[in-house]
Amino acid sequence: MKPINISIAGAGFSSRVFHIPFLKQDVRFNITKVYERTSNYAAEWLPNAETVRDFSLLLTPEVDLVLITTPNQTHYAMVKEALLAGKHVLVEKPLVATVAEAEALAELAKQQGKVLYVYQNRRWDSYIATAKSLIEQNLLGELVDCEIRFDRYAKEKNSKAWKEAGDRGTGLVYDLGVHLIDQVLYLFGKPKAVYADVRYQHEGVLVDDNFDIQLYYANDFKVVLKASRYAREPSPTFVLHGKLGSYLKQTPDNQETLLKNGVQPLGKEWNMEEKENWGILHTELEGNVVRQPYPNAQASYQNLFDDLYQVIAYNAEPVIKLEEVIFVLKVIERVFESAKLGQKIYL
């Protein structure tokens, strides 16, 4: 099959760090155009791509796939326009702000016979891939508790004005919570209830910047998701306890840091972590209690683009399914409902 021609809407942080480094070195994809309203960043990174000033100019006949990395508030209109133009779409998370909008776009993609794929890359964070493997090997036994955190430290509000405007679909729950909820869905399936505390800690802030989300499963298994922008000293990123053993990862996945520092994602070992940053497995093996560093399962955000190619080129079943994306948005809607009412909400 000839390379998939891509046009990109947006040339900001997401495009530069999470997408272009993978796409530009993958012969299965060919970046042809980039939409920037006023800047000319793409000319430096993609000298062979055309810069356009109107989104509609990304939808020309030779384009197969439109990548949308623009602010959240623009996603619905842009995805709809691209699908109506007969293009496959890869869109940054969150897909949109509401379940109703997501369902409408999913139905449109089905009618058009096109792929609508959401960039939930954090399924390929190292600790998620490792936890998945440990669960499949039953090295932890029946699960009882899990905590996943996404802590950062920022004295000031976000420098991107659109993230602080107070529009629906912005704030920390939609920015980072959408990743954590998707990770939980991937590891454990659908929860049966949610209880949430959502806070606004920066002075004068219009969007949430701290959350504590509790997800409840059968057999008293509970998952706690936390994020803060006032965590100078972060807590462990991932903790999973079972009746047989525990797995703990102190440090977050390293891929974002590597990509921000200009490391190119070439080969299978580009994001290998040093042993000192491995997680700890504390369990029983053949009747003996062991506590030891446990190597990460191989995982890379490249896996997402591999999957996307298979879905477009060969009509493969996607790893990230639209019904799962919609369920994550359903949970987010219930998160804000729970926080407002101060009570557990059943899903």
TrEMBL record:
Membership in a protein family: Belongs to the Gfo/Idh/MocA family.
Full protein name: Gfo/Idh/MocA family oxidoreductase
Domain Gfo/Idh/MocA-like oxidoreductase C-terminal: 132-345
Residues annotated as signal peptide: none
Domain Gfo/Idh/MocA-like oxidoreductase N-terminal as annotated: residue spans: 4-119
Oxidoreductase listed as a keyword: yes
Domain of life where this protein originates: Bacteria
Pfam families per UniProt: GFO_IDH_MocA, GFO_IDH_MocA_C
Alphabetized UniProt keyword annotations: Oxidoreductase
Molecular function via GO: nucleotide binding; oxidoreductase activity
